[in-house]
Design brief:
The structure holds 2 protein chains of 2 kinds. Chain A is of the alpha/beta class. In chain A, about 40% of the residues lie in helices and about 25% in strands. Chain A contains 9 helices and 10 strands. Chain A is globular and about 50 Å long. Chain B has a domain at about 20-235.
Chain lengths: ~240, ~325
């Protein structure tokens, strides 16, 4: 079953098409990768899905329901959560409260503060941050801030999670840990849509990969198909 | 609702102190000189405006300079309706008009960030002032208005009541999940929206709630002036003073703005009456020193002192 689908999704910045006539779909339970050179329009596509940007034409559906035109908080409550390319945690708040905000505001049904606190604590454990729950988020390392962002996103009880360059800036050990985290999120039954530059990671965790270039979708397929695709190699390495 | 219960279980003592202070204030007209009742009224008025300003601008970082607009509207509500309606109704209407205006203005302008929002709100107060001036010159053909006076003790008790309600409101917002939402908006609005917070709604409603108390304070204070005109009622100082008082007191704790407003108002009176020629100079110096050496205001100073001089240490995580 398709959990997310886009038809003719287009967004211009000034006269420049950042995303142009892109059709895409993500099936329930999949881990789908989105790759492409810098400026290909990957983050713009995520911004269109999450409601941070409004698309010029086309339509995006989540579980068959049109979500284009909705505000970010509405899309979040419908079950689409995201993380950001540059980490956006609430730096002066305690780690636990960062997650708590997601539980209190992002879920489709309201929760009591006791339930929310319990869930937030469990999620900190899930991402491996239980030990630093009371520390202000600014004291965490980049890798841990990224985990915190994942926990805050998971706190909104998403069915679809958009991860924007979770592994960028991490060392090899941290990349391996992040890959393992993505696998555990998938095992929870959450569909994952990832933007990634770390090829080893994306080849290892994705069922399917889409390639964007100059705002257009140029290839789609299994990791093996993408790795051997002539168009993709040309885009990345030049002709 | 109580998120902060995680971090502090010692809210009993400050609560007790607050109750004792309010009782002392409430009984003060019985034993302090009449002159001091008037001075306490002025101090409470500035606390109300400052605390109200901090309710919204403190956590979100949106610097509102609209306080003078709300205060002036309260003043003029009192001037226009004071003869026709009983005092509590007039004050209620003053607050209500401010609530509605703040809703409208908030919905239209809270997309503006930083300096743009500050300038817009400043412009709002000026605009209302000049529209009123124009109206008085061209339509009613008068300049200013007389206000029905109310005795000083009644004014004091009304101000005290508004003060208590404003403080309780500030306390409950700060300690509710909406307080956390406001702080998250101040830290990163985009992330707040994507965590499911209806940022526009939270901002607009809070802005409107904060306007109510400023309007109500304006409505009751007008009765002490007997004569009002737009330049008094919409004096830009009502916009700037709460900002200065809040910075001076420190916004990290609820008692910060209260302390800041109290010390500032007290100093202002003392300086004006004792050394009027140096009043503004001394004021300026205090402000500069406060900003340079007390980045977290008086609250920061007190916290440092209570920690026994140990400079804050963050855990290495």
């Amino acid at each position: 079953m398709q959990i997310l689908e886009g038809e003719g999704v287009t967004k211009y910045f000034g006269g420049l098409a950042a995303v142009s006539q892109v059709d895409f779909n993500v099936d329930q339970g999949e881990v789908v990768g989105l790759i492409g050179p810098n400026g290909a329009g990957k983050t713009t596509l995520f911004n269109l899905i999450s409601g941070a940007l409004v698309l010029k034409s086309g339509v995006i559906r989540f579980k068959g329901e049109k979500i284009t035109g909705l505000k970010p908080h509405q899309i979040c409550r419908k079950g689409v959560a995201r993380t950001f390319q540059e980490v956006k945690v609430f730096t002066n708040m305690p780690v636990l409260q960062n997650v708590l905000l997601g539980s209190l505001f992002g879920t489709s049904t309201a929760m009591s503060s006791t339930d929310a606190t319990r869930e937030a604590t469990e999620l900190l454990e899930f991402v491996g941050l239980s030990a630093v729950g009371v520390a202000p988020a600014k004291d965490l390392t980049l890798a841990n801030q990224k985990r915190l962002e994942v926990a805050r996103a998971l706190a909104t009880k998403p069915e679809l999670l958009l991860l924007d360059e979770l592994m960028a800036g991490l060392n090899p050990t941290e990349v391996a840990e992040a890959m393992e985290l993505v696998a555990r999120i998938r095992d929870k039954g959450i569909t994952v849509f990832v933007i990634e530059h770390v090829m080893k990671a994306i080849m290892g965790i994705c069922n399917r990969i889409m390639v964007l270039h100059h705002g257009e979708k140029i290839a789609e397929g299994t990791p093996q198909e993408i790795a051997s695709s002539k168009t993709v190699i040309e885009v990345y390495l030049g002709e | 609702m109580d998120i902060t219960a995680l971090t502090s279980k010692k809210s009993l003592v400050p609560g007790l102190i607050a109750v004792i202070l309010v009782i002392l204030l409430a009984t003060s007209p019985l034993y302090v000189p009449a002159y001091w009742v008037i001075r306490l009224t002025a101090i409470l008025m500035y606390i109300i405006i400052t605390v109200s300003w901090v309710i919204f601008s403190g956590p979100t970082g949106y610097m509102s300079l609209a306080s003078a607009a709300f205060f002036g509207i309260g003043v003029y509500t009192s001037a226009v309706l004071g003869e026709a309606l009983p005092l509590p109704v007039v004050i209620g209407i003053g607050g209500l008009i401010c609530f509605c205006l703040a809703l409208l203005v908030g919905a239209a302008t809270l997309r503006l960030r930083g300096i743009y929002f500050a300038i817009f709100t400043f412009g709002l107060a000026e605009l209302i002032k000049h529209v009123l001036l124009w109206w008085e010159i061209h339509v009613t053909g008068t300049r200013g208005r007389f206000v029905i006076t109310v005795d000083n003790t009644t004014v004091f008790y009304v101000i005290l009541l508004i003060f208590v309600v404003a403080l309780l409101t500030a306390y409950f917002i700060r300690h509710s999940k909406y307080g956390a939402a406001l702080r998250s908006i101040g830290e990163n609005e985009e992330a707040a929206a994507h965590a499911g917070i209806n940022v526009t709604m939270v901002k607009v409603i809070t802005f409107a709630i904060s306007a109510v108390f400023i309007g109500a304070a304006g409505a009751i204070m007008a009765t002490r002036w007997t004569y009002v005109e737009p330049y008094y009622a919409f004096n830009p100082l009502y916009s700037f003073m709460p900002v200065l008082m809040a910075i001076f007191g420190g916004m990290g704790q609820l008692y910060g703005p209260i302390l800041g407003a109290t010390v500032f108002t007290y100093l202002e009176e003392e300086l004006i009456t004792r050394i009027p020629e140096l009043y503004m100079i001394i004021f300026g110096i205090i402000l500069i020193v406060a900003i340079l050496y007390l980045p977290n205001g008086l609250v920061g100073l007190i916290q440092k002192w209570r920690k026994g001089g140990s400079v804050e240490q963050n855990a290495d995580t």
